[in-house]
Specification:
InterPro entries: HORMA_dom, HORMA_dom_sf, HORMA_MeioticProgression. The chain has 423 residues and is an alpha+beta fold. It is built from 13 helices and 16 strands.
Length: 423
């Protein structure tokens, strides 16, 4: 039996992401009553009986065009970072709720996995195909057992994430009788041409951009789907969640890997979560410290290498890059750009420390996601260390400052025309 029978290709991955977004948007708009019943037709999706949004006139037609002609154009080109379906009050002065789909790209990967966590889903669903791409690597970060699974198991996990989304949306309070619907797109600046605007979209106004990033902090993560070529994360922004988050919704994190020593504190969320940075002490315990405390603790010479290495990892944060880092990229950095001699054994220890602190999250063997929220407070501590800053390249310093000032933000597009909906 060969691995080629079960591997997910780039084309299959892209199609899966598009289909997933179609189904998710259809579920949300149907359950929230954003389109008339005539705008949907029954569809069976992975054993689930759903309502599929069909292209027609009116609200359903507009949403379909935004998605098919606009968002998917950016997705197919590898530009799309985030798609948000937004519901506003009638005068558009307040955002009532937002459903966001974040996309990241991993060229060359050959695995497929999905992790799902939440209040009513206590177990992880994980399916893997093939091996991590890139060659080499070997056992430099320790040997990892690769358990092969079939596509049917991945489809079962995919059905679970749709079920979870439906459970959450069905629990929301009713919307206003009159509301306004828009769609917003965010792009990866490092690959998107400055003049690019997909069909049906136009540059967002400064006030819309400011509101988008302001409200982004109040979103609740639901789940994440990783195909090996694309990663799709879902979060929802709703005031209802803000009231419940301290009690039971803080556990709705997109990441939960039992193979990692990094665990997010379920008692913390939102701004508190972003401000907390844990360091492992000599006894292996974890404690939250302020950036001043971190600076004092990292006074000895060995910590300079750790901070230089951490600076490189932080430049992969979603704010300035793709939000992911692989062992191959780390090896390339150590070989070509690192200003200090750092051995592989040190890298193992450093990555475990970053996992424990929540700066990186192990998503697959030799591949990590970089946390955007937890990065900012650490950057402030690093930039206070002149002995570290003097070793960093000009580009690295610029990227770190972007993380603290927020000046480098992804460009935002808004759908042309707003759809006013009446229940």
């Amino acid at each position: 039996m060969t691995s080629t029978a079960t591997e997910v290709t780039q084309t299959q991955s892209l199609a899966a992401v598009r289909n997933f977004i179609r189904v998710a948007v259809s579920c949300v708009t149907y359950l929230r009553g954003l389109c008339s019943d005539e705008s949907y037709q029954p569809r069976q999706f992975l054993g689930l009986q759903l309502k599929q949004l069909v292209r027609s006139s009116g609200d359903a037609g507009a949403i379909s065009r935004w998605m098919e002609e606009g968002a998917f154009d950016a997705l197919n080109r590898g530009y799309l970072k985030e798609l948000s379906l937004c519901v506003h009050e009638p005068n558009c002065t307040e955002l009532l709720e937002r459903y966001s789909f974040m996309v990241s790209y991993s060229p060359g990967g050959q695995r497929a996995a999905l992790s799902l966590t939440g209040e009513s889903m206590k177990e992880n669903l994980s399916c893997s195909f093939g091996t991590v791409g890139g060659g080499g690597g070997g056992d430099k970060m320790g040997k990892v057992l690769r358990k092969r699974r079939c596509r049917q198991e991945v489809q079962q996990a995919l059905a679970s994430i749709i079920t979870k989304l439906m459970e959450v949306v069905e629990g929301l309070p009713p919307l206003l009788c009159e509301r306004v619907l828009t769609m917003q797109l965010k792009y990866y600046e490092d690959v998107t041409p400055p003049s690019y605007e997909p069909p049906c979209f136009a540059p967002a106004s400064p006030s819309t951009v400011a509101a988008h990033y302001r409200e982004e902090k109040n979103s609740t993560d639901i789940a994440t789907l990783d195909t090996g070529h694309h990663t799709l994360s879902i979060n929802i922004r709703h005031k209802f969640f803000e009231q419940l988050r301290p009690h039971n919704l803080s556990q709705m994190n997109m990441y939960d890997a039992s193979s990692s020593s990094a665990r997010r504190d379920p008692t913390k969320g939102g701004k508190d979560d972003a401000a907390a940075y844990g360091c492992r002490n000599e006894r292996g315990t974890t404690e939250n410290r302020t950036s001043r405390g971190i600076t004092n603790d990292w006074a000895h010479a060995d910590e300079v290498a750790f901070l230089v290495f951490t600076s490189f990892i932080l430049t992969k944060s979603p704010t300035v890059s793709r939000g992911r880092i692989t062992m191959g990229e780390i090896e390339e950095y150590l070989r070509v750009a690192c200003p200090m001699e750092i051995e592989v054994k040190q890298v193992q220890s450093m990555m475990r420390r970053l996992e424990t602190s929540g700066i990186v999250l192990l998503e697959a063997p030799l591949e990590w996601a970089v946390s955007e929220q937890r990065s900012a407070v650490v950057v402030s501590a690093i930039l206070e260390r002149q002995d570290v800053v003097s070793l960093l390249s000009v580009q690295t310093r610029m990227d770190l400052r972007y993380l603290t000032t927020g000046r480098k933000v992804s460009r935002l597009s808004s759908s042309k025309g707003r759809k006013r909906v009446r229940a």
